[in-house]
Amino acid sequence: MMAPARVLVVDDSPTMRGLISAVLNSDPDVDVVGQAGDAMQARAAIKELNPDVVTLDIEMPNMNGLEFLEKIMTLRPMPVIMVSSLTHRGAEATITALEIGAFDCISKPAPGDTRPFHELIDKVKAAAKSGTRFQAGRQAPLRAAPAANVNVSTDYRVGRKVVAIGSSTGGVEALIEVLKGFPPNCPPTVITQHMPATFTKSFAERLNRLCAPQVQEATDNARLEIGRIYLAPGGDRHMIVANPHAPVCRLIDKPPVNGHRPSVDVLFDSVAEIAGRNAVGVILTGMGRDGAAGLLKMRHAGARTVGQNEKTCVVYGMPRVAFELGAVEQQLPLNAIGEEVLKLTAARREGSD
């Protein structure tokens, strides 16, 4: 049996430290070995206790969470889960933290609501298991290969090709690596990334600044257009693609699938039905199995499918399940996925219009 995941809880609020610790200690496979109220205490505790995982508040006195996270990633790379407020400022800081190398994020609950922190248990367990791979990834970060030599026709018609991407833990870094090589006239691209509701708008804005195409948080009935990337909003609705003659994003009210809303499976299922062989499906790093069955439907419908390989995943969960189901046509390292997707969308398949 594996030893319990050893966790250090860092937050300037004693109440919040106690709440996080109580939730984590309720699981026998998690052991909160220490608490710290600021970066100085946390640094000393990391040296003394050698935890497997750190939960880190973003807003702290003396040295904020982002500054401390950068020091951790530079001096002692380890899985860190950011705990953020539900404000726009908190969301912006969390996206920055995930780019720096935080393992995952979670939002602070509203008063009297501890449900968000119960998700933290699974995140902590996954972070502890990622240990060696996570440290290796931080020491040798990937950089996406430029895709400038891939020409996507400027007369590309909506409906000819659609790209659908699903990701979860580790997805912020992975999506940036994949999308920053896309040209301004890339095929319409739809993405479901597991992320708290208040964070997806900030992430879409960050992607829009980093990428040549226009990136936006999807809205209901937004038309899929060349050069646009649509990120499913977090919260209480799924995103699907509808209307094969003039494809649009639809945000629909349905129960969670695989514990998620929005769900990658729901998105992939819709793309399989609407686009069939005129689609490319991509499944990236993440916990669980969301997206695997939907990617299999896409492949059965004639779509080309790509999965991130184990070596470059922060968490080889979703891509592993998809690969074992036979949903993945080819597994690739992260730095090769963007260029391959563009090649698949630019090339005409035999029998295509």
Automatic annotation (TrEMBL):
Where in this chain does the record put each Response regulatory domain?
A: 6-123
CheB-type methylesterase domain: residues covered: 156-348
The answer to whether UniProt assigns keyword Zinc to this entry is no
Active-site feature positions: 168, 194, 290
Q: Which GO terms describe its molecular function?
A: protein-glutamate methylesterase activity
PROSITE patterns named among the record's database cross-references: CHEB, RESPONSE_REGULATORY
* Highest rank taxon of the organism: Bacteria
Q: What is its EC number?
A: 3.1.1.61, 3.5.1.44
Q: Which HAMAP family match?
A: CheB_chemtxs
> What is the recorded function of this protein according to its Swiss-Prot or TrEMBL entry?
Involved in chemotaxis. Part of a chemotaxis signal transduction system that modulates chemotaxis in response to various stimuli. Catalyzes the demethylation of specific methylglutamate residues introduced into the chemoreceptors (methyl-accepting chemotaxis proteins or MCP) by CheR. Also mediates the irreversible deamidation of specific glutamine residues to glutamic acid.
Domain commentary? Contains a C-terminal catalytic domain, and an N-terminal region which modulates catalytic activity.
Tell me what this protein is called: Protein-glutamate methylesterase/protein-glutamine glutaminase
